[in-house]
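Hey team,

Filing this mostly as a record. A colleague (T.K.) asked me to run one chain through the structure pipeline before their review meeting, and I want the input and output archived in the tracker in case anyone asks later how it was produced. No errors, nothing strange. Just documentation.

Input sequence:
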Amino acid sequence: MFLENTVNHDEQFGWIEVICGSMFSGKTEELIRRLKRAQFAKQRVEIFKPLIDTRYNEEMVVSHDANEIRSTPVPAAANIRLLADDCDVVGIDEAQFFDDEIVTVCNDLANRGVRVVVAGLDMDFKGNPFGPMPALMATAEYVTKVHAVCTRTGNLANYSFRKSNNDKLVLLGETDEYEPLSRAAFYKAMLREKISKMDVEAEEVNPSKKAANE
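Output structure:
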């Protein structure tokens, strides 16, 4: 997307761009592409990511395709406001892991004339809106939804299905933990999971029936 040009050059306000989608959809790849373009244009760029994101590198923002850009890990959204002084462009990766203040921080930066580019998962592994992402998407001038390819149907995927039984909302992982699914594949996978849990619970309630069947 070409979002650098404005019609009214007297207006000093910035804007917010949100890149969202499922895992393996190219969100971080697109974020890095936009930020490197800004760096090439000699703009002052700062990139931030949540401190908990240490999957590939503690300091670099790294895409699944191994493209990378240097970033500053921060424990909370408020730190971004303190560290983003004198910037033309601010990039934020894995925004879904930040606290709700990230929405205020992004809007404050945009109101100061900063271009803010944010990437994050729009839904969690259960298919629910993830953290502050809905509010960021609502207040952003530009929203780009990217898609992966469903591993089961080959159709466009916009769900991140968790293959393990871990119910923690935040669980960093790659293809061993997650797979991108289409709506139909995700619905079927969740239904099978629900039926499987019901069968296990029924066996726990009536173990004598299980023993008799054996």
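Quick notes for T.K.: The chain has a mean pLDDT of 85. Residues 183-205 form the longest helix (23 residues).
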